[in-house]
Design brief:
11 helices; single chain; 242 residues; 2 domains; mainly alpha; globular
Length: 242
């Protein structure tokens, strides 16, 4: 747990989160939609931190993040370009905040999601259904990896297809669950354009404050344990000298 805690650049996370909150408050009376997008970005970045902090399996944990889901919501309500920019900022920003994760995979994923975002408004015009659009989003974003494997090969084709099938299947299920249970709610936040969700804002704020308190307690506990260990070592050395 201590190692995972150290694998995140918390100062950068803190500055980014606080800056986003400030911008959110500034935009709130001017344009509630962009305040909502900023709130989405805070949640999306934090949803990626566990994957960025975890070695070896971090890339798989990233399947649980909310970037695809929020990008789709933004694409169908605001625009594909705006959604692409959102996904690029969140994906690259969160990658910088963590120690782990493959940069080549992160860049490929960023490209795939951004290109998919620009197609989604047209896809949604045909489907008019959030769940179907989310399913097609997942399929399209994974198809982009095929030409990128040709241009920027990272593994053998056999391993590529195996990883794509497993990854796509897992991502399909996760994104479908997000869209099924939360799609209408988050879609409604941007569709109305006038009502900022204070309940979501307070929920996110409460969670982040809780994480901050835990982090502070964890850091204090770690320091105390380190001091106790050092003191015990010094005591043992003193006994040996005697």
């Amino acid at each position: 747990m201590r190692d995972l805690h150290k694998n995140i650049h918390w100062d950068l996370v803190k500055k980014t989160t606080i800056s986003s909150y400030i911008l959110l408050i500034i935009f709130l009376p001017l344009n509630p939609i962009w305040s909502t997008v900023l709130l989405f970005s805070i949640v999306a970045i934090w949803s990626r931190l566990p994957g960025m902090a975890t070695p070896h399996i971090g890339d798989w944990i990233l399947m649980l993040d909310l970037v695809d889901f929020f990008s789709m919501i933004i694409a169908i309500n605001i625009g594909g370009v705006e959604a692409a920019i959102f996904s690029i900022i969140v994906n690259i920003g969160s990658k910088i905040m963590g120690e782990h994760g493959n940069w080549l995979l992160a860049i490929k994923d960023m490209i795939a999601v951004a290109l998919t975002c620009m197609m989604i408004p047209y896809v949604h015009l045909i489907t008019s259904n959030i769940q179907i659009t989310m399913a097609l989003f997942t399929v399209i974003r994974n198809l982009w990896f095929i030409p990128m494997q040709v241009l920027m090969p990272a593994v053998s084709w056999g391993k590529f297809w195996m990883l794509r099938i497993v990854w796509s299947s897992g991502l399909f299920v996760i994104n479908n669950l997000y869209s099924r249970f939360f799609g209408e709610f988050f879609d409604g936040l941007l569709k109305t354009g006038v009502n900022f969700s204070w309940s979501l804002f307070l929920l996110v704020t409460s969670v982040l404050v809780g994480v901050g308190i835990y982090k502070k307690y964890f850091k204090k506990t770690t320091i105390n344990q380190t001091n106790n260990t050092t003191q015990n070592m010094n005591t043992n050395n003193a006994y040996k000298m005697c």
